[in-house]
Amino acid sequence: MPYVNIKITKENGTPTTEQKQRIIKGVTNLLGEVLGRSTDSLVVVIDEVECDNYGVGGISITQKRKANANLS
Question: Which of 1, 2, 38, 66 is catalytic?
Fold first, then answer.
């Protein structure tokens, strides 16, 4: 049974419920097509990650976005 875990930043109301449903459906269909398997047992999980909980280049995404906003 294929299992897919997608991580998306949780910010400003995105992703919406509708967007998540489209992601789930699209990933399911793509894997079914590519792998040539039934999609009945394919699992897609979307984890929404708070911007304080990951970072790039040694700083959190929250800090990085604040710094970028100050440059604008």
Answer: 2
How confident is the model over 18-37, as a mean pLDDT? 96
* DSSP assigned state of 66: H
pTM across the whole model: 0.79
C-alpha triplet 30, 32, 38: angle, nearest 5°: 160
Could you say which of 3.80.10.10, 2.40.128.260, 3.30.429.10, 3.30.460.10 is the CATH number of the domain covering 3-71? 3.30.429.10
Q: Is 2 a catalytic residue?
A: yes
Q: Please give the pLDDT value at position 68.
A: 85
CA 66 – CA 52 distance, rounded (Å):
12
